[in-house]
Amino acid sequence: MAFHKLAIQNIDKETAAAVTISFDVPSSLKDKFSFKAGQYITLKTEIDGKEVRRDYSICSSPKSGELTVAVKAVENGFFSKYANTTLKKGDILEVAEPNGRFVFEADASKTRTVAAFAAGSGITPIMSIAKTILEEEPNSHFILIYGNKTPKDTIFFKELLALHHEYVDRFSIQMIFSQSQEEDAMFGRIEKSTINFLLKNTYKHKKIDTFYLCGPEGMITTTKEVLKDFGVDEAYIHFELFSVPVAAESKTNPVAVSDGSTAIKIIVDDEETEFVMSQKQSILEAAIAKQIDAPYSCQGGICSSCIARVTEGSATMTQNNILTENELAEGLVLTCQAHPTTPTIVVDYDDV
């Protein structure tokens, strides 16, 4: 994973607990930091002598020429609290090139309706997707269902209203607040009853082509289930988690991990490293322990930074919320979740 040192161009308060950070990308790096709507960047810095890496989705549009992310301070959020209280304009962070598979690619010749369900900071990649559709697909429409506690807790609240007024015929917003009764907003959460009501009433005459979901695992799971009940093909439901799944947090793995050992070869940036590892370790843990420069960020199975291909041998994953059945069949694994199951294995980070 290649990192580049970038200066913070602007840092602005969005809510009491969230900031947007814009980076100054020099002309020599513009190509490397071109991105697709929905992608993220990995930020790396040192806090109190400890290296910290975190992924944040880009909220600016590809055509804007800006590289901006939103960071919401969360409980026990080491970097997110630092970003909200300490970072300032001119500070330098190491930034990896854009990554991620939760993407929208515009096509000006298309006429379609895209709908998104977002909760809390899950709005960040959705914001980039919304702007991209509105800017680059003049005949397409965008529907946003966005859940928060109150308007003051809503990231991009004013900007979204401004976009709605600018594109009033093409951009529909349904705000949902769980702790505030507001005019033109629903009260509650994005849950089965809410989604059913919206699809059967508010948007019953809309033919929605594609759905994008971003937020906590529970919201995504429920929304997917309701959409499938409405006959939506899973191929048209795209999602991205914004928190580590419950199973990963509790360390209760449904997949049995062996206590044997494996002779492993890891290929990164055309360099090969061979050693023997415990099958109780994940492949990524073993690589980091050997000081191999393997790409990684969240280490919780919710980003795609650590994907690699198993070209010999096999591995089992304790958690998978990203890879499709076809990708698994092709040998791709999330190395932060993958444990070897054969005496020898070859893992290639370059072949993805």
From TrEMBL:
Annotated Gene3D superfamilies: 3.10.20.30, Nucleotide-binding domain of ferredoxin-NADP reductase (FNR) module, Translation factors
CDD domains per UniProt: fer2, PA_degradation_oxidoreductase_like
GO function terms (MF aspect): 2 iron, 2 sulfur cluster binding; flavin adenine dinucleotide binding; metal ion binding; oxidoreductase activity
Domain 2Fe-2S ferredoxin-type: 262-352
Cofactor(s), names only, from the UniProt record: FAD
Taxonomy, superkingdom: Bacteria
Signal peptide: none
Record's keyword terms, sorted: 2Fe-2S, FAD, Flavoprotein, Iron, Iron-sulfur, Metal-binding, Oxidoreductase
Domain annotation FAD-binding FR-type: ranges: 1-105
UniProt-listed Pfam families: FAD_binding_6 (PF00970), Fer2 (PF00111), NAD_binding_1 (PF00175)
The name this protein goes by in its record: Ring-1,2-phenylacetyl-CoA epoxidase subunit PaaE
Source organism per UniProt: Formosa algae
